[in-house]
Description:
Blueprint: H1 2-21, H2 23-51
Helix pairs in contact: 1-2
Amino acid sequence: MQVKKVLKYGTIAFVAFFLFKRPDDAAGAVRGALDSVYDAADSLARFVSHLS
């Protein structure tokens, strides 16, 4: 359980550091992640629409 807590706080610290030191890169990373989610949802919607 202790390792999980350390990893969680380490991840939060890394994200905060990345956000404050390189905000443009952080925004690009978020944009890329959201684009991936959008593309996956679009692909799933096309798949389901072709089933009927």
